[in-house]
Amino acid sequence: MSPESTHSVTVSVARVDPGDSLQSTGRVDFTYTDPMIVNLHPRNGPAAGGTRISITGLNMNTSSHIEAMIGTNVPCVIIWRNDTAVVCTTIASMVGTTGLITVAFDGALRMSTESFTFQPNPKVIDIQPRSSIKS
User: Fold this and answer.
1) What is d(CA 8, CA 2) in angstroms, rounded to the nearest whole number?
2) Which terminus of the chain is more solvent-facing, meaning fewer CB atoms within 10 Å of its CB: N or C?
3) pLDDT for 80-101, tens place per residue?
4) Which of 17-21, 24-28, 43-47, 110-114 has the lowest mean pLDDT?
5) E strands present in 1-135
6) Whole-angstrom Cα distance, residue 87 to residue 80?
7) 35-119: which CATH architecture?
8) Burial (0-12, 13-18, 19+ Cβ within 10 Å), 88
9) Tens-place pLDDT, residues 42-64
10) Cβ distance 113 to 38 under 8 Å?
């Protein structure tokens, strides 16, 4: 299926109370959208979590409920989305954990072709300057 296609469908609406025979039928155009992941950035972040991953693609705002995962068991918390991107924040995980990004659009799974990897947390070894003006 292409990312978006429109088809004409027949819709029937009926009231089903005893004794009622109200019914209406009509043809309407219905657009099917198929979300597609194209890219993600960055592709790695610290094991402590907190990395904002931008998952870009087509029809990314298709469903009413979306969830993102790194691999099969590390949630990535959705913080923002529009038609071309979903942004999620990583939670803490083990150093070396790696996996494709999977986004569930109302349960329909779409997977990235690139992986995200949790790296060792950065270490502060020095701070410069060591003094500052009083504020």
Assistant:
1) 16
2) C
3) 999 999 999 999 999 999 999 9
4) 17-21
5) 4-14, 23-33, 36-41, 44-46, 52-58, 66-70, 74-81, 85-90, 98-105, 108-119
6) 5
7) Sandwich (2.60)
8) buried
9) 999 999 999 999 999 999 998 89
10) no
Q: Which residues partner with 61 through β-bridges?
A: none
Is the predicted pLDDT of residue 1 greater than 70, yes or no? no
**C-alpha–C-alpha distance, residues 112 and 19, integer Å:** 53
Write down the domain spans for the chain.
35-119
Q: Residue 134 is encoded by which pair of tokens?
A: 């009083």
User: Which pLDDT does position 116 carry in this prediction?
Assistant: 98
Vertex 120 angle, CA 117 and 122, to 5°: 120
Tokens of residue 1, six digits: 């299926």
Token pair of 62 as six digits: 């298709």
Give the pLDDT mean for 15-24. Answer: 70
d(CA 11, CA 33): 19
C-alpha closest to that of 94 among 68, 123, 122, 118: 118
Question: Which amino acid is residue 55, in one-letter code?
Answer: I
CA distance 93 to 69: 12
Partners of 49 in beta bridges = none
